[in-house]
Queue: 2 jobs
Job 1
Amino acid sequence: MRELMASYYMQGHQAECNAWITSGAPVELLYAMDIYPIYPENHGALIGATKLGSYYSDFSERNGFSRDLCSYARCDIGCVFAGTSPIGGLPKPTFLFACNNICNTVVKWYEVLSRIFKVPLFILDTPFIRKELKESHLRYVEEQLYDFIKFAERITGRELEDQKLKEVIARSVEGVGLYAHCLQSARNKPSPMNCFDAFVNMAPIVCLRGTDHAIQFYVGLKKELDDRIKQGISAVDNEEIRLLWDNIPVWYRLRWLGEFFENRNACLVADTYTNAWTGFGELKGNDILSSMAEVYTLSYLNIGMDRTAEIINHLIELYDVDGVVMHSNRSCKPYSFGQYEIQKKLSVPSVIIEADMVDERVFSEAQVVTRLEAFLEML
Amino acid sequence: MISAGIDIGSITAKCVILQGDKILAYSILRVKPNLEESAREIFEKTLELAGLSKEEVDSIVATGYGRGRVDFANKKITEISCHAIGSHFLIPDVGTVIDIGGQDSKVIAVENGKVLDFVMNDKCAAGTGRFIEVMANALGLKIEQIGELALRATERLKISSTCTVFAESEVVSYLSAGKKVEEIIAGVCDAIAGRLIAMASRVGIRREVVLTGGVAKNLGVRRAIEEKIGFGVKVPPEPQIVGALGAAVLGSG
Amino acid sequence: MKVGYLCTFTPKEIIYSAGFQPFRVFATERPIELASAYIQSYSCSQARGALECALKDDFYAFVFTRCCDTLMRLTDIFEFAGKRVYNIEFPTKIGNVEYYLRELKDFVEVLRDWGGEVSFESLVESLKLYRELEEGLKQLFSVFPDYETAIKVQQIDVKDAIKLVDEKLKSAKKEKESPKVLITGSVCPYPKIYDLFREAGFSIKDDLCTGSRFFEYIYPTFEPEDLEGALRFIAEKYFYKSPCPTKHYESDRRFEYVIKLAEDCDAVVFLLVKFCEPHFFDYPQLKSELEKMGKKVALIELEFPVVSTEQIRTRIEALREVIL
């Protein structure tokens, strides 16, 4: 895993042209044109995991960016100002590609980057699907996909070949299928993995979706998990309580949270975050762009609260969990606002903890411990 | 069977010694920076009041945010569960516990002493004892005076900031505008009650409503809460020890 | 019957033509209490204040346009709180009129379901009235930027609003020209804040959603001939309204717009609502552009309801002293 991602970042530096891209954007188009995708969000997660969130955020804050802004954005922009990062900074982009199917924050964040680097920015604007998906929404997004291809072709001087795109889509679908299989091994009781394993192993499906690297990685992981099930190895020694995690991880506290639950015989078997990528498996090989428009418009964070609650209830059933731990994430408004209402629509009890995905300054250990312990006592 | 419950909060430490359903002794002390020492001290003091020796206590349960630091406890349980059990012990038909602690406030939905659901305040201090303390300081008052004063007000001013720091400056600017202290105080109590009721509505308010924690003694806050929910609340004679009492009940099996 | 809306991109002309009273919802003087049961405290106080207002007052329905992440979720939260809601998917990327025209047609259907019929005649009449109001406000602001009036007209019948602006215009006295401050930000529904600037000796120009962004438009040049044409007119009118940080424009239209506004000003104040992401993302780079032009720049962060103004006054007076 570590080598795979190290070589991914390395290749990014060597690539002739690259694009910085948001986690919910159709990366298949980039791989089909040999444009190397760089993921600032993944970079932000990595900074969080190395507990350097406030360090890099500080570079942004000193340049006037408010501490109330998304901490992925603050860290990423901070690294640009710092000229480095835990992996030596990201390579300068050839262009920027942001899709607002995860938030409108990325539009603003990428506008900032576009002014700093003075490179073109393409915004893929997906309407928010609060209730039903309309034909007009799909047409709007599909037209932009054509616009994007023209935009990328103009900048890189390359042409998108149909055949190549088909191959990338096929690999993407295969990779997502394997990935989903890995996550669903957690249906086994006791579960061979927990959501912390899922978080650590999600980078390939985000960054390398559509390549053989992702397929090989999840083939390996699937085998490992299948073996664990056969040998009766579980993530938590004495799994008594099964839980579901909601929202982006608290990256700087992964191990701490993992141990906290393990010591109390509770296993967070699954989460809404890593499961969000399984939706990209619906891409179709024929009529690619219209299928792409549909799949990417209906991404997990771009749908209404009723549908979100339905999906969580489905995960509750699929993984047979006893409760839900919701991370109220100061950095991620679209993921967090509505949690109070969703709680009331869930089929099992839930608890909310206040934190931030990367900024460790807003984490209050005593408060989190009390809430989680009381929740486990209640269950 | 003699059991002890020790509640180490952010501001005070509480201990209750229980035999069957009889409280033998209790005490309340301000916590010291060294929580282990505070725990030992409160335990020894309560033992002395009960006329018991350590050996005579069969079980010790610790609760409160410093529960992890009570090294001599047999068991550690969060204050959420303990407040539910303690309230139920005192007021068997309790449906909702509103606990206003020093740094945390919480609303617990209870049925037969069992926690059905709970919410706690988010990171900021609005709606906690700390909030009142800051406002009392800004007005040059002692905390104990706040409740009485609030009841004397015929009108109440609006304190709108959710942030303690901003609310403090609101209070100060009311003072400099020559507003009456009791009206400001009544506003402070109203603001806290408003925050608590909003929290409570997330779990649902069911009778009987029991107020616990140090702030429960504050008549101004109590009245503001009652006005907002439209019926009377119950306050145990010593609302601060409910958590420790719940811990002792838990320890008694 | 009142139909509430929050964002200036809402096509209020259509709501009015269907026989409803468009009512812009702002945070009020009331403390925010109930709303905190529905949304976390790191949402902006405009969202929480509007929700508080919605929970306490009487509205037939609420219309949202997607602009920021908070408002996107707020639609569902309003619905959860038992309110009738509809969200128009205003594009984030300005450009595709055909798409937005389709959204507006769908909105007309929704209004019909609510019992309000939109005809070509009623829509053209509504367009005419709102344009008259907008031109009136523009005139009033060129003499004296009257925020109390600009806020009030968003909450009353457009015909009464036109009359009110006319009256105000008759008695308006020209402000002295300098020193002039440009106030930029989202909403500030408290007229007393603007008074603080005048009391400190500034004349005011603004780029605010409770000021000029409510009435600054570049109108399409064609005359609508049928209902579709009138809807197209609205789509284009709102695409080319004064730019907002929640929208993405080809080139940097938003920055260019603010920079142009700032040209004849001595200072620029960013009057921002805490937690407002779109504005706070723009702030550092826009500030640096303005400073390059030699403008003094200050940031004032607001939380609604604004009760105590003394700190804000100090901030403004200090700015006034700096540019003396």
Note: The helical segments of chain B are 35-50, 79-90, 129-138, 143-152, 164-176, 181-203, 219-229, 242-251.
Job 2
Amino acid sequence: MDATWLLFTLGVALIFGKIGDHLMERVELPGVLGEILMGMILGNLVYFGLVSPEYLTLHPSDTFEFLAKLGIIFLLFLGGLDTEVEMLKKTGSIATVSTVLGVFVPLILGWFGLKLMGYPSREAFAGGILLTATSIGITVRVMMDLGVLRSEVGAASLSASVMDDFLGIALIIFAVGSGSVLGLISKMAVFFIITGIVAWYTVDKYLRFAEWLHVEKGVLAMVLALMFLFSALAQHWFDAAIEGAFMAGIVLSRLPEGKKLMEEIKSIAYGLVVPIFFVYTGAMLDLRVFASRDALTLAAVLSIIAVIGKVAGRGFGAIIMGWDFKKSLQMGIGSIPRTEVALVDLMVAIHGGAIPQSDAQKFIAATLIFITVSVLITPPLLKWAFREDVEAMKRGEMEERKSSISETKKKIAETKKPRKILKR
Amino acid sequence: MGTVNYMSEIERALQTFHSIRVSDIMPSIVTMPIVTLDAPLVDVLKLLRTRHHVWVVKSREDMELEGVIRYFDVMNVLLPPEDTKARFGNISALFKSILGGAERAEDVMERNVMTIEDDATVLDALKRMRHYKIQILAIVDEKGRLVGEVSLRMLIDEFLRLMKLGGAQWTQHGSSSRSE
């Protein structure tokens, strides 16, 4: 293949991706959606014969496929590095139960739903996993706009988001991993002992060695090497390299050196491989798939289960822990949005064979639709769920503010007076 | 000739400077900006008006170092959480904002503090600072208790002090200390 057009496509993909990111952020939606949309446009220019695949080599392309895989690995590595294990430990009991049910209810509903539609069990299970992980960004914005982010529900939603991602990432192993469940669990245990416990206690010696080498960007290179080695091990055992990257991130997150390297790793990730991953994912969707009703039906089923499953799961979890119906509903609605972890799980499921190539197009289409639906319906639903609280707050605050403003004005006037006298 | 002498003076000053132990130039712990985990954010902000960082310890009795809040971190504290950029791998910043629910020192601190042992030299400290692009290191004892700090500003002060003292005195004393 001519490298000219490969490099050209790489440049175009990055420019389009970042512009898409910007456009979506301007309308206060997750930037990721813009990157995917731009990828979709670029990809379909080729599928619809408007541009020759010779010039825009985005998909199918081994190079871009590999870069996209690197994107996922870097994203998960950053996810691990960003995780504060202390925060995870501090998740309250209500948030914990609510999160766990909020993960398993959509998973089980998705599994059953897809099985009823005639999908084999493994594929249906992978489909269920796509529905598990919440993306907290949009909820944070809406709750903040409404002034309820600092409420009990807001705090629980925030702390639940960390554990939610954790479960969504861990569960994909059961969809792509082969062999018996017992075999898989024992492999997971060994993997955890190697990458978790052993690495947890030896990683600082490894970093000391990297520092001792005294070479340009030596520590960064050695840290990336660790990420790749863990990924290789996870790929070999579970067909899911992301687990290794995530564990490497978590292990390094305990050291200040790991956190300090985050900015450099972000430069590689968000500056190159992560946008390529999202653009490539968008480009994988051939819009002609919508000619068949299958994709639309799948999208409808997944969207409905994604919304109902989360609200029911999280809400029920909160209710059994003693919250009233209204607060539980608010907590449930706040957990509807899905974005990047769903896409990561989707790609892992496709590459790992849990979703066969013949169904890949349908699942990509359905996932992109349920992601978009989940992101778009959350703001109005949240506003509706919090309307009474917001009105009550406004009424109470109005009086309080009036009196406090007049008091502050008085204080300012008093403090200014003596200074003026002194100046004179 | 004058220039040559001056250069060698600087070189000698640097050599001495590099070999000084950080424990010899660290300030007294009572003058350091320290809060406990449960300190309200207002206390932290008050300290950061005049300081570049605040250390966070478990309690003032055991001085076990838990985290650090830097001057630059205040931006995350005061700004609303950047929700549209809150993608996987970038979520922890959400929690650090006052609008995101942060109330106490432990909510906004960076948990993993870059430290250096008290018997390390100025050269070690400088290398570490350059390597990880940071201007301040916590000095801890073997039990992880905060005993001091070393900042780039302190190092500048110490170097200028050595320059002022002049060549003969450095070679006589070897290393210099605050007690001089």
Note: The longest strand of chain B covers residues 65-70.
